[in-house]
Model the fold of this input.
Amino acid sequence: MLTDREVLSTFNMLRNEHLDVRTVTLGISLFDCATHDFDVFAYKVRAKISRYASRLVETCNDVADKYGIPVVNKRISVSPIGVVGASFSRDEMVKACRVLDEAAKNAGVDFLGGFGALVEKGMTPGERNLIDSLPEALACTDRICSSINVASSRSGINMDAVALMGQRILDVAEATRDRDGIGCAKLVVFANIPQDVPFMAGAYLGVGEPDVVINVGVSGPGVVKKAIDRAMAAGESGGITLGEVAEVIKRTAYKVTRVGEIIGKEVADRLGIPFGVADLSLAPTPAVGDSVGEIFQSVGLSSIGAPGSTAVLAMLNDAVKKGGAFASSHVGGLSGAFIPVSEDSSIEAATRSGALSLEKLEAMTSVCSVGLDMIAIPGDTPASTISGMIADEMAIGMINSKTTAVRIIPVPGKGVGDTACFGGLLGEASIIPVPGGDASRFISLGGRIPAPIHSLKN
Done:
């Protein structure tokens, strides 16, 4: 039972600290829709998504109203289409993307994830066709997100896929030139992608998952910041240590995760669907007061990017996981802290001022939950440079047995210092320089970088 003080604390989180459930994501397996006949595939996909998702938005809104806690996004994740549509041509992959987009619109959800492929060890013809279809597919749809896993700690890094994705990212940006390359905001390249992540653009439903499942993504960076601010103010006379700050973060993460799991389980019960996991990642928005970057200032740094930033992020990530793990019976997805540049007003301001560089962002990804995320770079960046950045990030994930990812946006026709505007939760970003040097010969070698020795564990 909650005490009166805890109830009042939760009300304050809702009113003043941007507490919400960031996403309820309905996972739907499409493996039973697989067929060589595209028309039959399209019919089965539409029917299955409609059967399970038709009441998702309505149910989320009803549960949100009951508890007074907003559910910001309602989403769908599906089985990787690179596997489900293994027999499809490039043009059929584009058509499949349109079918999924239509189904997402009919269900009223914000995004549908799963138009992706798992190619960490090699690539089938169908997966190659899906990757080749990405520029047209993401340009002609509104709600589809794609994730391509090119590396894992057990398989190594598929450098052929890395080289291909460097070029495809440029192609997707060019196909959405009129919108500052926004197609790249819906495309992410992963190492060690989780099978149950509810957050976009990485969401998909893995091979070992149920036929249908509800996963919830909770957030609350504003809640964490306010809790730290209160603790710092209370400790000014007697002093407060970083160990005590970590304890504050852990306790706050516990409260936020409990809220998310309650919402997720009730939505699942009302829909008659199993509940899967709570992903307790701190996912910011462009709104002031809902920023991960502001947490760095609360613990005494001038801004994110200042010396000490990687240490703060490590502490934050660990404390969030510890608090959330105690609060939820099933923690999954990414679970930790995100640092998406355009989606966080404080992080974006730090990159614009020069306090936070791409190299520092890469260093910080070694201790956070994802990677180089929502970073705008010059539109004339060579494909080999983008592939090199992907390879570096994949190496961090592979060696450290953690999830890392790259979601960068080469903005056509714009250069360093210009601003790219994406709108909504995607925000805007000042275009920052990429590292110098030429990676083209290295990328052209291809092949597969072997996995580290711990890949032999079983």
Notes: The first strand starts at residue 21 and ends at 28.
